[in-house]
Amino acid sequence: MAAKPEVQGSGLDTVKMVLALLMLAGGIVAYYYFDEYGTLYRVLGLLAITFASVGVMLTTELGRSTWVFLREARTEVRKMVWPTRAETIQTTLAVFVMVLVMGIFLWLLDMFLGWGVRFFIA
């Protein structure tokens, strides 16, 4: 995989990121400030501010690179081969059996070591 050079954002990108964070913080404060209004209106307002804040964030270089990363990650997830239901059940049962076997083994080991220590101390 070729290494991608990091692109330095401009000063305007920093201002946009700060603006996006301030918008989000202002939306959260407004949600609690206007508690006399219905929850539906406050949630809709918070969602609108959140979408606006994300929109401002996506206009920055960091936002664009994050969006590209998320798209590529989604593409990679689609390429994955997921196990069938039968394989999942078999693997889960194998894990449960091994946990049970190891639990019994460690319990017996602890019991015999405790018996040995009591034998030598007493």
Brief characterization of the structure:
Helices cover 80% and strands 0% of the residues.
Description:
The radius of gyration is 28 Å and the shape is elongated. Helix 1 runs antiparallel to helix 2. It has helices at residues 11-33, 39-57, 61-79, 85-121. The protein is mostly helical. It folds into two domains: 11-79; 83-122.
How are the SSEs placed, and which strands pair?
Blueprint: H1 11-33, H2 39-57, H3 61-79, H4 85-121
Helix pairs in contact: 1-2
Number of helices: 4
Largest sheet: none
Classification by helices and strands? mainly alpha
Task: Give the CA-CA distance, first to last residue.
Answer: 66 Å
Query: Which stretches are low in confidence, meaning pLDDT under 50 for 5 or more residues running?
Result: none
* Net shape: elongated
Sheet-strand content, in percent, reads under 5%
Mean pLDDT: 91
State the domain count. Answer: 2
| Oligomeric composition of the shown chains | single chain
Helix content: over 70%
Q: Order of SSEs, N→C?
A: HHHH
Supply the key terms.
single chain; 122 residues; mainly alpha; elongated
